[in-house]
Each structure stands twice: as structure tokens, then as C-alpha cells.
Task: structure prediction
Amino acid sequence: MMFRALLFVVLALFIAFAAAWLADQEGVSEITWLGYSAQIDSSALVVVIALLCVVGIFVDRMVRALVRWPSLFSQGWQARRRIKGEAALSMGFVALAAGDSRAANKQARRAEKLLDKGVLTDLLVAQSSYANGDKKAASRYFQKLAASPDTAYFGQLGLMRLHQQTALETGDSTSAKDAYIAANTAFALEPTSPEVAQVILKEALHNKDWAKAVECLKVYLNHSGGQSAQEVERSRLLYASLSLQMAEEMIEAARGEDKPLSKAVMQEAIALCEQALGEVADFSPASACLVGLLSEKGDRRGAEKQASKAFSLTPHIGNLRILRDVRNDNDGQFITHAMGLAAKSKQADEGYIAVAEFAIEVGIWASASQALSHLSDAFVPHNDYYRIQAAIALGLADEGAHQTALEQAAIAPRAHYWSCQSCGKEARAYHFECDGCGARHAQIWARK
Result:
């Protein structure tokens, strides 16, 4: 306020000074026009010109205001209409979030009238129609969203969900196919969408398109926030299983031509096995395949390193046999080496059990007993332990101890085994397809 008052005083002083200065000036101006001549004081002429300028500006502003009045009125009306439309749009989304599909649909229609056509309006109409059970209207609006480059992904996503729901309710195979087509289109637009990837994954598994399935799993695993640890673990195992399956099918196709594996096939198969182990480090079947490939390639050092790592992570007799195949030790030396690996493993007790089982296979009873003597106090004997005890007793011709150990094995807890997540069938070896129910990629290494 002080600044404005000061500015007003300065301006008044300036005007007063200018008026006094003009009044003090002498001089006469003569104007001749159309044969007429007129004389006027120069200072008065300056004042008249200034007044005319002020009047001209005022008249110009008035004329402009009169000319623009209809458009200003229209703008005000449109602004009020837009405010009401945005309010209806907001209330529609609030109603949709609250689960009141009827109120959401009512507000959507009101917003559509007030705001005409727009992305948010179309989206609200589509979502409210979908929630209200009006599938035709929802499909129409989702198709409209899909036709626009800016909203194409969201339109395809809405169509995918709509077709999925129809297929689920009616069992219509055409709707399921349409859902898959919409999912593929959406995936091409947004290749990082985990929801779309899951839809494509199911179809890829059905069609045995392992490469596409692995691609979808990679997207899912990279954006698995909010998923349970069990779901993520299953997806990782599936990723590893499919990678191994692609490697094995590639190797089998090359072997079918009765030719050694080419360098390109060898490298790609090795990369797939490493890809599987990169997701599930203790996936023994992929490790076994990788060890075989490295041995065939001539990289025995790399094969031994991988076999040793596999035994340390999952110390069972299968991994121990694979390690034995890539080492040049005699049986006694190998058992000593295996005992050292078992001692370093996080599952040392299972490692000692595997060493004892291997010692039984090669007929070194003393080494088997020695391995069992290293078991920790926390070890809970299972059926494999008692079977080894029975074998040692049989080798020592102790029939009583042999019979007692067999009886204990029959009632003891189960050791580690491969278990199908679909039907629960147990197996001592991994199979891509379960022998019981035929489910693929469903076997996990069960732990007590």
C-alpha cells in the first residue's frame, strides 16, 4: 500500500510539473487545412492531442469489448460446462473405485455430454460399462481407445480382459483366441507388462513355444513386485526348466543327424544351461547338462568346477556321480576329495550321506562308515541313512544289524526327492514331464 501511495504522489507531481512547464511555454501553432487557417497556443495543442489520444484509446477498448462480447459469453459458458464435466468425471472414477458401477455409469454419461469425446471420458465409459455388465458398450469404447496411438495399449488391455471374462463365463474358444490376439497386440505395444505376459505365457506353454514362454517369464520376473515368494520361486523354476528343455531339444535335434555338435549349437546350448542356472543356481538337471557339454567341448576344468559347485549346492548322489566322471582320481582319492566338498557345503550332512552312498557303490565300506561318522548332532536320520547302514551291515555280514536298519528305513522320514507340484508324485530323478500326471516343468527338489 505504501508503494502505491508513493507511486501516486510521484505521478501527481509529474503531471503538475508537466502542466506548469507547458503553461510557461510561449509559442503559437498555425494549422492550415482546406483553405482555412487557425492559430492555437502550442501548449494547448499538446493538451488537445493528448486528450484525443486518451479518448481514442477508450473508444477502441469499448468497440473491442462490444465485438468480443458474444465470444466472451461463449467462453464463460464453456468454462462452466467444462467445470461441471470434470466434476462428473471425477465423481465417476470415485464411484468406480468404490464399486458402485451404476453411479459410475451415470456420471460417465453426464461427463460424455458435457465434455464431448476425450481419452478420460472414453476410459470412464468403457470401465463403467465393463463393471456394469454392458460388454457391447465396453467393447465399443475399448476398440475406440485401441484405435488411438496414445491409448492403444490400454484399449488392447481392456479388450483382453473383456474376452477373458467372456471365455471364462461361456467357455467360448473364440473369445479365448480373441483374448490371446489382444494380448499379443498389447505386448507388442508394451513389452514390459507382466499382466499381458502371463496371458501369453499360458498359450505359449500350450503350444510348446518355449522361447516365447521364456521371454514372458523374463518380463514377469523383472516386474514381480507384489507377488508372493512362492509364486516368484515357481516362476524361477519354470524359467530354468524351459531354458534346459530348449537346450536338450536343440542337442537332441543335432544328435539326430548323427553328427557331433557344431560350435554354434554347443555355444547356444551352454548359454541356455547357464541361463537356467542364473535363475536357479541349484537346479541340478541344468548343471548336469552343462557339465556334459563342457566335457564334450574339451573344457574338463570348467566341467569339474561346475560339477563341484552343483554338489556343494545340492549334495546328492547324482551330482556326486557326475563329478566322479570328470575327475581322474581313483575311488579312494575321489572319496577324500568329496568329503572335503561335503564339509564346505551348507548342507554338509546331506553331503556326507551322498559320499557314504557312493562309497557303498564302489565297495569301500570303511569310507562309508567314516562319512557317516561326520554327521552332525542336529542330523535327523532318514530312510537313505538307514539304507546305507543296512548296506554296510550286509557288507560286514552282520545279518541282525542289516535287518534292523531295513526296519528303521521303512518308518524313517523321506530323504530329498523330486516332487511334482501338480500330482505330488515323487521321483529320484528329474523329468521335464511328470510320469504320474504328464504335467510339464512341475517337479521341484523337495526338502524336509
